[in-house]
Amino acid sequence: MTADPLLPLLPLIAGACIGGFVQGLSGFAFSLVALSFWAWSLPPTLAGPLAAFCSLVGQILALRTVRRAVPLARLAPFVLCGLVGVPVGVWILRYLDPVWFRAGIGAILVVYCSILLLAAHLPRIAHGGRAADGVVGFIGGVMGGIGGLVGVVPTLWCTLRGWDKDMQRAVMQIFFIVMHTLTITLYAVHGVITTQTLHVFAIAVPSMILPTLAGAWAYKFLSDHMFRRMVLALLACSGVTLLVGTVPELLAR
Predict the structure, then answer these.
(1) pLDDT tens, 84-114?
(2) Residue 143 and residue 239: Cα distance in Å, rounded?
């Protein structure tokens, strides 16, 4: 199969490498990092499935960093409610402007995460129990169905819960694997994955393997405090990425 000359290889490979390293280090954020490269060079029908598939591969590769068994009682509310939220988000998408949605989420992330980064001590959320975790999982699923942002709210929630980095990573990685698998299945059912998509998969996935493993290796040197700060910084940067990507679309209207 000959390479499609319309596919710019440099941003494709750069997005896969940098996104893979960040995901291996932090446990999330592949899509937001990679799409900052791909959104300018790939059509959305190609970039979306590529980001979901690479995110899934990265989460599976980084499972080796999970150093403890995940308590089912802690994981179940996120996963079960997230599974319900994804189709709800897909349904809402028919009535919601996705550009304004991404811009709004980006603005909230920039403001809120920047405030938390400047705070001397992070606030802790100790109330709500498993019911609150389920609500957060549902919101993550809805946001995933609307705009592929499944990890934003659950990741921030776990950080404010004050969980140590290993517990947060263990819970979120399983949650992400389930959500990404559902997303890719829906893409396949609706015929979004084409021959061209598989060709791009074959380029991006090998490019991200070593960076993802390098990030997963570097993760073990982070303290809990450094990990929380890094997560907040990545969420704030993700907000900037969302705003930068949506502002041109809004101005063009």
Answers:
(1) 998 888 788 777 777 787 788 888 888 888 8
(2) 14
Q: Strand ranges (DSSP E) for the chain?
A: none
* Cα dihedral sign, 199-201-206-207: positive
Closest CA to 54 of 234, 215, 211, 201: 201
DSSP per residue, 157-177: HHHHHT--HHHHHHHHHHHHH
d(CA 243, CA 239): 6
Q: Can you say how many angstroms the Cα of residue 38 is from the centroid of all Cα atoms in its chain?
A: 15
Q: Is 129 left (phi over 0), alpha (psi -120 to 50) or beta?
A: left
What tokens does 146 get?
């609307």
Q: Answer whether residue 3 shows pLDDT above 50.
A: no
Q: Which residues contact 4 (CB under 8 A, 6 or more apart)?
A: 196, 199
Instruction: Give the integer Cα–Cα distance in Å for 62 and 173.
Output: 8
Q: Express each pLDDT in 38-70 by its tens digit.
A: 877 777 778 778 888 898 999 888 877 766 667
Percent of all residues in the chain with a pLDDT value above 90, rounded to a whole number: 17
Q: pTM to 2 decimals?
A: 0.79
Sequence-ordered list of residues with C-beta below 8 angstroms from that of 194, at least 6 positions apart, any chain: none
Q: How far apart are CA 196 and CA 212, in angstroms?
A: 24
Q: Which residue has the tokens 């609150």?
A: 132
Tokens of 40: 């300018």
